[in-house]
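Hey team,

Filing this mostly as a record. A colleague (T.K.) asked me to run one chain through the structure pipeline before their review meeting, and I want the input and output archived in the tracker in case anyone asks later how it was produced. No errors, nothing strange. Just documentation.

Input sequence:
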Amino acid sequence: MTTELEAVPNLKHKRYNKGIHYDYDVAIIGAGIVGTAIAYELSFFNLKTVLIERENDVAMGTTRANSAIIHAGYDPKPDTLMARLNVEGAARIPALCSRLDVPWKKTGSLVIGFDEGDHQVLSALYQRGLANKVPALRLLDREATLALEPELSKAVEASLWAPTAGVIIPWQLCLAFVETAVKGGCELLRNRELCSAHALPEGGFILQIRPTEQFFPDQIQNIRELRVRSVVNAAGVYADLVHNLVAPASFVIKPCRGEYYLLDRDTTTKVEHIIFQCPDERGKGIVVSQMVPGNILIGPNSQYIETRDDTSTTKDALAEVKAGALKSIPGLEFGDNIRSFSGIRANSSVDDFIIAEAVPGWIDAAGIRSPGLSAAPAIATMVTKLLQRTLGEEFKRRVWNPTRKRRRITEMSSAERLELTNTSPLYGRIICRCETVSEGEIVAALRGPVPALSMDGIKRRTDAGLGRCQSGFCGARVLEIISRELNVPKDKVILDRPNSTVLSGKMTAVNIGDNYPTASDLTERFIDTVPVVQESPSLSELAVTNSSQFACYDLIVIGGGPAGLAAALEAKDRGLARILLVERDTDLGGILNQCIHNGFGLHIFREELTGPEYAERFIEQLAKIDIELAMDTMVIDLGSDHQVQLIGKDTGWRQVYGKSIILAMGCRERTRGPLGISGTRPAGILTAGAAQRYVNVEGYMVGSKVIVLGSGDIGLIMARRMVLEGAQVVACVEIMPYAGGLTRNVVQCLNDFDIPLMLSSTITEIKGKERVESVVVMSVDDKRQPIPGTEQEFAVDTVLLSVGLIPENELSKAAGVELDKRTGGPIVFENMETSVPGIFACGNVVQVHGLVDFVTEEARRAGHAAADYVRRENKMKIDRHRFVENSQSPDNYVEIEAGSNLAYIVPQRARLDRVDTLICHFRVKSIFDDERRIVVKAGDRTVASFKRDYMVPGEMEQIKIPKALLAGIESNLVVDIS
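Output structure:
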């Protein structure tokens, strides 16, 4: 991009007058990938440049919502700008990404064909690619194609292989361009739109800019005039309107919307390359592509629209994308979708890029549709050459050799993490657990050359909130950091665009009932009396130190919520000497800290407590005994050999070892992604748990007119909570024909407050720009499909999602623990041991519990078993800082199977010779409102039978089978309802 400019002919252009003052040499309109690439290119010259963007951040248009592909270049018609600039630009990407520290991945692409007609298209594309000088193209037969991508449909007959194609994170490249340009002197004006422009008789232009009317309607009179020598129009979908300010209309932008799915990177079907179908007149077809982080991107379709900024999704378009993708890869799991979105392409009436002077000194870079991302570096060079004609002798290269390096915890070696967290403690505090993003990275994004101004601005710069929980865990923490660093009230922090505030206002008082100490208070009170984890030696030190110097524990408990607390206390009571309890938050207690309602402890303590009171009982016990705490510390890796990598603000990075491990990480909330809700993505959409934290812990309201989707316990409780704080809750909408939460919560939270419960219904569309404005609710049939004609629209400003909980098992997977597809948690034995010897699991990480009392009971079994394990297997030896296991295989066991009427059962395995009483938990699939029996069978033998008068899916069932009834059983146990 920074090669010497070619000589250009001295054309007779209107020259600017050197004797007149100009504010800028070049004004660039639009800070997408093209505008920022041009700004970057111009930073190598002695020019005064301004970049004008109508949004509050760069990369807010097509750049942030596209297929993220660096195209090889076989698709554009030969002898077009599109063809030449695609190949030239793509060739520059590797060096640019290396220089500017932008993630990209060379994956190669396949265009697949299914029939003879597709064969002809593939041959034509191959010839076109040769004409465009695309390197290494090959036509592959069926066998070679499937060898490259085994998950492809077996109906594939042939393909075109382009090994030079790749994927990139478009907004990261855009940010790299603009940050470098700003460091080089370019001025960036955000939230400013061009309202008029005219050429000056003496040369140059007068531009009038103002605060963007869409966001600041009361400030549109604040007009600023800029006198500039030349202008580059890189305004994307608005480029024709900008062009028409100074020149006759010569092209029309035709906005074309494409919709996408983004699958979790842990989805079962893996895709290694970019998969295209044969293109048609509408575009390159439905693409299935691996992304840089490992997610799978699916889409887009192609639909011309009237409104240039309409990035809503529609049910029909998403269905089209899904059907098209399944044709290529039938095994795709759309239940793993974490986000659906759309982007707008700036198609035009001209069948090529438009890069030319509209009038002397005014250059259009318009109609930059696909492969615009790939071509952007070459487009910037071409525009720079055109500008030289206008600026002439003023266009002088300067000494400027910029590079860019980001600090990313996920990309560092262990030694680098150790050094960074010791010198910069904020990098030791992990804020986003899904993407492992530290507070240091977020603060850097807020203090950088182009600082983030919003939650989504942080997401684009750091990936915080981009993962599977979609800000459910880190959102409140990111918001707090933004508030602190930008010195704005929390209820003024925005999601994305101006006016998209996440919170609706500060509460006058948090109504938490009696004046009791919270779990947070108690953690702070006792933290000084409990030993804090000591620093561990680095890996290099471990290799040479004596084994007695290792940071070695009898037990490491991961998670300081109700399960982790109970497990640690039980293990200590059973005689384990050295226990480490790791908690990622600043306080012990986990989810209980935000559950200020009562209803806890009826089974364990025989009295009704609030969540913080329940946690208090265990924290008080913990303060009296010798258990080490690692607070505000994240486990970033766990091995099957019990090696644990920790990172914390106060203690930095370290590696520790546990003779036994207990997993107690809890669960996360299901988000909008898998639900198939179309519409927009404004502020005001939160999981019920996230809303609960904001309201009960932070003391902020999240909205005034609310609808709740799903009738899980948190949703029911938050419906009541919102009413108590003065909000209107219009309905609780449940797709099933029965409520998902406890019966008592339906009565106490909905019925007692006259909140309608709409069963067999769901939200199908969300509307609104900056903030939710309304939702569409439809009835569903017995297959849970919306029934046409049943649409009801509700005016609301907030949607709370209570659509299920998912056990948090990324660490379990890392350790090689076998998971149950039905629960989403580890497969465990009767003593809560997982498939990996010495690693135990308990609480919501195993199965989603309705009662915390059951969590405590389960955790105590795990703690007891871990203590037994260490005592029984204390022959484990340390061999060069790694444990060697001794006969820890589970030997003889039986499977415990869920019958056809059960959703699942835990435990899934049992070593009956070790059982005193076999305790099983399960949920039924449907309502049983008459007398039934829970029957346990081993083959034809009925082992046990339990009477129940009423069972519903929302309430967990427990059965206890005495050891005497299990004697002599060698076949699997089956539990079902009769």
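Quick notes for T.K.: The longest helix spans residues 852-872. DSSP finds 21 helices and 54 strands in the chain.
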